[in-house]
Records
---
Amino acid sequence: MQYEYASTVDLVREITGRCFHDLPSLRDIRRNPDVLLGIDGIGAVSAKRIQAALELGIRYATEPATEQPVITSPEDIILIYGPRLRDLEHERFYVLLMNNAGVITDEVMVSKGIQNSTLVHPREIFREAIRRSASSVILMHNHPSGIREASHEDKIITKQLVEAGRLLDIQVKDHIIICGQSYLSFAENGWLEE
Protein backbone atom coordinates (compact mmCIF):
# COMPACT_ATOMS: atom_id res chain seq x y z
CA MET A 1 0.00 0.00 0.00
CA GLN A 2 1.39 3.39 -0.95
CA TYR A 3 1.00 6.44 1.23
CA GLU A 4 -0.94 9.35 -0.27
CA TYR A 5 0.66 12.69 0.56
CA ALA A 6 -1.68 15.57 1.26
CA SER A 7 0.65 18.05 -0.40
CA THR A 8 4.07 18.60 -1.85
CA VAL A 9 5.10 20.19 1.45
CA ASP A 10 4.16 16.97 3.29
CA LEU A 11 6.26 14.95 0.84
CA VAL A 12 9.24 17.26 1.35
CA ARG A 13 8.88 16.90 5.12
CA GLU A 14 8.78 13.12 4.75
CA ILE A 15 11.89 13.06 2.56
CA THR A 16 13.92 15.39 4.75
CA GLY A 17 12.66 13.86 8.00
CA ARG A 18 13.12 10.20 7.20
CA CYS A 19 16.06 10.11 4.84
CA PHE A 20 18.20 13.14 5.47
CA HIS A 21 19.28 15.10 8.50
CA ASP A 22 19.90 18.39 6.74
CA LEU A 23 19.44 19.95 3.33
CA PRO A 24 23.09 19.60 2.19
CA SER A 25 22.75 15.83 2.54
CA LEU A 26 20.18 15.99 -0.27
CA ARG A 27 23.13 15.94 -2.68
CA ASP A 28 22.96 12.14 -2.38
CA ILE A 29 19.73 12.34 -4.40
CA ARG A 30 21.57 14.21 -7.11
CA ARG A 31 24.05 11.39 -7.45
CA ASN A 32 21.65 8.53 -6.87
CA PRO A 33 17.88 9.03 -6.98
CA ASP A 34 17.39 5.41 -5.88
CA VAL A 35 17.84 6.50 -2.24
CA LEU A 36 14.27 7.78 -2.46
CA LEU A 37 12.80 4.40 -3.34
CA GLY A 38 12.64 3.45 0.35
CA ILE A 39 9.93 6.03 1.00
CA ASP A 40 6.33 4.90 0.66
CA GLY A 41 4.69 6.49 -2.33
CA ILE A 42 7.89 7.13 -4.28
CA GLY A 43 8.59 4.91 -7.25
CA ALA A 44 11.29 5.10 -9.90
CA VAL A 45 9.48 7.75 -11.94
CA SER A 46 8.83 9.94 -8.89
CA ALA A 47 12.44 9.55 -7.77
CA LYS A 48 13.65 10.80 -11.18
CA ARG A 49 11.20 13.72 -11.00
CA ILE A 50 12.45 14.68 -7.54
CA GLN A 51 16.03 14.46 -8.78
CA ALA A 52 15.12 16.71 -11.71
CA ALA A 53 13.39 19.18 -9.38
CA LEU A 54 16.47 19.26 -7.15
CA GLU A 55 18.66 19.98 -10.19
CA LEU A 56 16.30 22.76 -11.28
CA GLY A 57 16.42 24.23 -7.77
CA ILE A 58 20.22 24.20 -7.80
CA ARG A 59 20.32 25.86 -11.21
CA TYR A 60 17.75 28.45 -10.19
CA ALA A 61 19.68 29.27 -7.02
CA THR A 62 22.96 29.58 -8.89
CA GLU A 63 21.76 31.26 -12.08
CA PRO A 64 23.28 34.69 -12.30
CA ALA A 65 20.80 37.51 -11.96
CA THR A 66 19.62 39.32 -15.08
CA GLU A 67 21.89 42.18 -14.12
CA GLN A 68 25.19 40.36 -14.03
CA PRO A 69 27.47 41.04 -11.08
CA VAL A 70 30.99 42.27 -11.67
CA ILE A 71 33.44 39.47 -10.89
CA THR A 72 36.07 40.79 -8.49
CA SER A 73 37.31 37.63 -6.78
CA PRO A 74 37.24 33.82 -6.96
CA GLU A 75 34.55 33.85 -4.26
CA ASP A 76 32.21 35.55 -6.74
CA ILE A 77 32.68 32.59 -9.09
CA ILE A 78 32.25 30.04 -6.31
CA LEU A 79 28.94 31.57 -5.25
CA ILE A 80 27.61 31.09 -8.76
CA TYR A 81 29.23 27.83 -9.87
CA GLY A 82 30.22 25.99 -6.67
CA PRO A 83 26.80 24.41 -6.07
CA ARG A 84 26.59 23.28 -9.69
CA LEU A 85 30.00 21.63 -9.90
CA ARG A 86 31.05 20.48 -6.45
CA ASP A 87 29.01 17.24 -6.36
CA LEU A 88 29.48 16.03 -9.93
CA GLU A 89 31.07 12.62 -10.46
CA HIS A 90 33.07 13.64 -13.56
CA GLU A 91 35.34 16.56 -14.32
CA ARG A 92 33.90 19.36 -16.40
CA PHE A 93 35.98 22.17 -17.82
CA TYR A 94 34.37 25.55 -18.46
CA VAL A 95 35.54 28.82 -19.90
CA LEU A 96 33.74 31.89 -18.59
CA LEU A 97 33.73 34.68 -21.16
CA MET A 98 33.97 38.21 -19.78
CA ASN A 99 33.58 41.72 -21.11
CA ASN A 100 35.68 44.82 -20.32
CA ALA A 101 33.55 45.56 -17.25
CA GLY A 102 34.44 42.22 -15.63
CA VAL A 103 30.97 40.74 -16.20
CA ILE A 104 30.46 37.14 -17.35
CA THR A 105 28.78 37.30 -20.73
CA ASP A 106 28.65 33.58 -21.37
CA GLU A 107 29.83 30.21 -20.14
CA VAL A 108 31.01 27.41 -22.36
CA MET A 109 31.52 23.81 -21.26
CA VAL A 110 34.63 22.86 -23.19
CA SER A 111 34.87 19.26 -22.08
CA LYS A 112 33.37 16.62 -19.85
CA GLY A 113 35.80 14.01 -18.66
CA ILE A 114 36.10 10.91 -16.60
CA GLN A 115 36.30 10.86 -12.82
CA ASN A 116 39.77 12.32 -12.54
CA SER A 117 40.63 14.05 -15.78
CA THR A 118 39.38 15.97 -18.75
CA LEU A 119 41.00 17.06 -21.97
CA VAL A 120 41.10 20.65 -23.16
CA HIS A 121 42.90 22.34 -26.00
CA PRO A 122 43.61 26.05 -26.47
CA ARG A 123 41.66 26.17 -29.74
CA GLU A 124 38.43 25.06 -27.97
CA ILE A 125 38.93 27.63 -25.23
CA PHE A 126 39.68 30.58 -27.45
CA ARG A 127 37.40 29.70 -30.39
CA GLU A 128 34.38 30.74 -28.36
CA ALA A 129 36.15 33.68 -26.75
CA ILE A 130 37.02 35.09 -30.18
CA ARG A 131 33.62 34.31 -31.69
CA ARG A 132 31.80 36.04 -28.85
CA SER A 133 34.25 38.97 -28.54
CA ALA A 134 35.36 38.26 -24.98
CA SER A 135 38.02 40.58 -23.61
CA SER A 136 39.09 38.09 -20.93
CA VAL A 137 38.30 34.59 -19.68
CA ILE A 138 38.24 32.65 -16.46
CA LEU A 139 39.02 28.95 -16.69
CA MET A 140 37.19 26.67 -14.31
CA HIS A 141 36.89 22.98 -13.64
CA ASN A 142 35.96 20.68 -10.81
CA HIS A 143 37.77 17.92 -8.96
CA PRO A 144 35.20 15.21 -8.19
CA SER A 145 37.65 13.77 -5.65
CA GLY A 146 37.41 17.00 -3.64
CA ILE A 147 41.21 17.12 -3.45
CA ARG A 148 42.29 20.75 -3.18
CA GLU A 149 45.42 20.50 -5.26
CA ALA A 150 46.37 21.47 -8.81
CA SER A 151 47.74 18.52 -10.74
CA HIS A 152 50.82 18.74 -12.91
CA GLU A 153 48.48 18.58 -15.95
CA ASP A 154 46.37 21.45 -14.53
CA LYS A 155 49.48 23.60 -14.31
CA ILE A 156 50.72 22.70 -17.80
CA ILE A 157 47.41 23.39 -19.56
CA THR A 158 46.98 26.65 -17.63
CA LYS A 159 50.43 27.83 -18.71
CA GLN A 160 49.60 26.98 -22.34
CA LEU A 161 46.27 28.81 -22.14
CA VAL A 162 47.80 31.91 -20.54
CA GLU A 163 50.42 32.04 -23.32
CA ALA A 164 47.78 31.53 -26.04
CA GLY A 165 45.65 34.25 -24.47
CA ARG A 166 48.56 36.69 -24.57
CA LEU A 167 49.03 36.06 -28.30
CA LEU A 168 45.30 36.68 -28.89
CA ASP A 169 45.09 39.64 -26.49
CA ILE A 170 42.52 37.79 -24.37
CA GLN A 171 43.63 37.77 -20.74
CA VAL A 172 43.25 34.61 -18.67
CA LYS A 173 42.19 36.19 -15.37
CA ASP A 174 42.13 32.98 -13.32
CA HIS A 175 41.87 29.23 -13.36
CA ILE A 176 39.61 28.09 -10.55
CA ILE A 177 39.32 24.49 -9.44
CA ILE A 178 36.20 23.67 -7.45
CA CYS A 179 37.12 21.00 -4.90
CA GLY A 180 34.01 19.94 -2.97
CA GLN A 181 33.19 22.74 -0.53
CA SER A 182 36.51 24.45 -1.22
CA TYR A 183 38.35 25.85 -4.22
CA LEU A 184 41.80 26.62 -5.55
CA SER A 185 42.62 29.78 -7.49
CA PHE A 186 45.68 30.03 -9.73
CA ALA A 187 45.52 33.84 -9.54
CA GLU A 188 45.46 33.87 -5.72
CA ASN A 189 48.46 31.55 -5.67
CA GLY A 190 50.42 33.59 -8.22
CA TRP A 191 50.57 30.64 -10.65
CA LEU A 192 49.39 32.55 -13.73
CA GLU A 193 52.72 34.37 -13.91
CA GLU A 194 54.91 31.27 -13.75
---
Amino acid sequence: MDQATIKEGGCQCGAVRYRFIGKPVVTYLCHCQECQKQSASAFGISVQVRRKNFEITMGTPKFWQRLASSGRGVLCAFCPDCGSRLYHASNHESENVSIKGGSLDDVSDLKPLGHLWTRSAQPWVKIDRGGTAFAFETEPEDFDEQLAHWAQV
Protein backbone atom coordinates (compact mmCIF):
# COMPACT_ATOMS: atom_id res chain seq x y z
CA MET A 1 0.00 0.00 0.00
CA ASP A 2 1.31 3.45 -0.96
CA GLN A 3 2.04 5.41 2.23
CA ALA A 4 0.95 8.66 0.55
CA THR A 5 -2.64 7.37 0.46
CA ILE A 6 -2.81 6.76 4.22
CA LYS A 7 -3.75 9.55 6.64
CA GLU A 8 -3.75 9.05 10.39
CA GLY A 9 -5.07 10.98 13.32
CA GLY A 10 -6.43 10.75 16.81
CA CYS A 11 -7.45 12.50 19.96
CA GLN A 12 -5.32 14.90 22.00
CA CYS A 13 -4.33 12.34 24.65
CA GLY A 14 -3.55 9.54 22.17
CA ALA A 15 -6.06 7.02 23.58
CA VAL A 16 -8.04 6.79 20.31
CA ARG A 17 -6.35 6.60 16.92
CA TYR A 18 -7.73 6.17 13.40
CA ARG A 19 -6.64 6.09 9.79
CA PHE A 20 -8.18 6.32 6.37
CA ILE A 21 -6.92 5.22 2.99
CA GLY A 22 -7.34 7.23 -0.20
CA LYS A 23 -8.38 10.78 -0.94
CA PRO A 24 -11.15 12.52 0.97
CA VAL A 25 -14.50 12.78 -0.79
CA VAL A 26 -14.49 16.51 0.03
CA THR A 27 -12.97 18.88 2.56
CA TYR A 28 -14.81 22.05 3.54
CA LEU A 29 -15.05 24.63 6.30
CA CYS A 30 -18.27 24.75 8.30
CA HIS A 31 -19.26 27.99 10.02
CA CYS A 32 -22.37 26.71 11.85
CA GLN A 33 -22.59 27.57 15.53
CA GLU A 34 -22.18 23.90 16.54
CA CYS A 35 -18.87 23.63 14.66
CA GLN A 36 -17.76 26.89 16.25
CA LYS A 37 -18.56 25.49 19.70
CA GLN A 38 -17.09 22.06 19.00
CA SER A 39 -13.83 23.44 17.61
CA ALA A 40 -13.64 26.37 20.06
CA SER A 41 -12.82 28.45 16.98
CA ALA A 42 -14.46 30.36 14.13
CA PHE A 43 -15.24 27.24 12.06
CA GLY A 44 -14.74 23.50 11.86
CA ILE A 45 -12.77 21.64 9.21
CA SER A 46 -14.74 18.69 7.84
CA VAL A 47 -12.89 15.98 5.93
CA GLN A 48 -15.44 13.59 4.43
CA VAL A 49 -14.12 10.09 3.77
CA ARG A 50 -15.71 6.79 2.80
CA ARG A 51 -16.53 4.71 5.87
CA LYS A 52 -15.21 1.60 4.11
CA ASN A 53 -11.77 3.30 3.97
CA PHE A 54 -11.86 4.46 7.60
CA GLU A 55 -10.92 2.46 10.69
CA ILE A 56 -10.24 2.96 14.38
CA THR A 57 -6.75 1.56 14.98
CA MET A 58 -6.51 2.05 18.76
CA GLY A 59 -9.00 2.62 21.55
CA THR A 60 -12.76 2.90 21.39
CA PRO A 61 -14.56 6.19 20.90
CA LYS A 62 -17.75 7.08 22.73
CA PHE A 63 -20.76 8.47 20.90
CA TRP A 64 -23.50 10.98 21.51
CA GLN A 65 -26.19 12.26 19.18
CA ARG A 66 -27.26 15.84 18.55
CA LEU A 67 -29.45 17.70 16.10
CA ALA A 68 -27.62 19.62 13.40
CA SER A 69 -28.63 23.14 12.38
CA SER A 70 -30.30 21.48 9.39
CA GLY A 71 -32.55 19.49 11.76
CA ARG A 72 -30.90 16.16 10.91
CA GLY A 73 -29.43 13.87 13.55
CA VAL A 74 -25.64 13.74 13.88
CA LEU A 75 -23.80 10.89 15.60
CA CYS A 76 -20.64 12.34 17.18
CA ALA A 77 -17.55 10.26 18.06
CA PHE A 78 -15.17 11.48 20.74
CA CYS A 79 -12.40 10.20 23.01
CA PRO A 80 -13.80 8.95 26.33
CA ASP A 81 -10.64 10.11 28.14
CA CYS A 82 -9.86 13.62 26.85
CA GLY A 83 -13.15 14.45 25.11
CA SER A 84 -11.61 15.38 21.75
CA ARG A 85 -14.13 15.15 18.90
CA LEU A 86 -12.86 12.82 16.19
CA TYR A 87 -15.59 12.47 13.59
CA HIS A 88 -19.30 12.49 13.00
CA ALA A 89 -21.81 10.80 10.71
CA SER A 90 -25.56 10.66 10.28
CA ASN A 91 -25.56 7.15 11.83
CA HIS A 92 -23.37 4.05 12.38
CA GLU A 93 -24.07 2.80 8.83
CA SER A 94 -23.50 6.04 6.91
CA GLU A 95 -21.50 5.72 3.70
CA ASN A 96 -19.27 8.62 4.74
CA VAL A 97 -17.82 9.88 8.00
CA SER A 98 -16.77 13.47 8.53
CA ILE A 99 -13.40 13.57 10.25
CA LYS A 100 -12.71 16.67 12.30
CA GLY A 101 -9.74 18.14 10.41
CA GLY A 102 -7.86 19.25 13.51
CA SER A 103 -7.64 15.63 14.71
CA LEU A 104 -5.42 14.63 11.77
CA ASP A 105 -1.70 14.25 12.49
CA ASP A 106 -0.80 16.32 9.42
CA VAL A 107 -3.17 18.98 8.08
CA SER A 108 -0.66 20.67 5.78
CA ASP A 109 -2.12 19.08 2.63
CA LEU A 110 -5.80 19.73 3.35
CA LYS A 111 -7.42 21.78 0.62
CA PRO A 112 -10.93 22.91 1.60
CA LEU A 113 -13.13 23.38 -1.47
CA GLY A 114 -15.45 25.87 0.18
CA HIS A 115 -17.74 26.84 3.02
CA LEU A 116 -21.06 25.82 4.58
CA TRP A 117 -23.27 27.88 6.91
CA THR A 118 -21.71 31.17 5.83
CA ARG A 119 -24.61 33.10 7.38
CA SER A 120 -23.16 32.11 10.78
CA ALA A 121 -19.57 32.99 9.86
CA GLN A 122 -17.76 35.42 12.09
CA PRO A 123 -17.65 38.84 10.41
CA TRP A 124 -13.84 38.91 10.40
CA VAL A 125 -13.54 35.60 8.47
CA LYS A 126 -12.84 36.27 4.79
CA ILE A 127 -14.61 33.78 2.54
CA ASP A 128 -13.23 33.29 -0.98
CA ARG A 129 -16.24 33.04 -3.27
CA GLY A 130 -14.23 32.92 -6.49
CA GLY A 131 -12.55 30.16 -8.45
CA THR A 132 -13.73 26.68 -7.52
CA ALA A 133 -14.71 27.65 -3.97
CA PHE A 134 -18.35 27.15 -3.05
CA ALA A 135 -20.22 28.99 -0.34
CA PHE A 136 -23.65 28.07 0.99
CA GLU A 137 -25.56 30.22 3.48
CA THR A 138 -26.75 27.01 5.17
CA GLU A 139 -26.30 23.41 4.06
CA PRO A 140 -27.22 22.11 0.61
CA GLU A 141 -30.63 20.41 0.49
CA ASP A 142 -29.21 17.37 -1.31
CA PHE A 143 -25.79 16.79 0.20
CA ASP A 144 -25.27 13.59 -1.83
CA GLU A 145 -25.74 15.54 -5.06
CA GLN A 146 -23.24 18.13 -3.87
CA LEU A 147 -20.71 15.44 -2.93
CA ALA A 148 -20.97 14.01 -6.45
CA HIS A 149 -20.42 17.50 -7.89
CA TRP A 150 -17.43 18.19 -5.63
CA ALA A 151 -15.83 14.88 -6.62
CA GLN A 152 -15.50 16.35 -10.11
CA VAL A 153 -13.62 19.44 -8.86
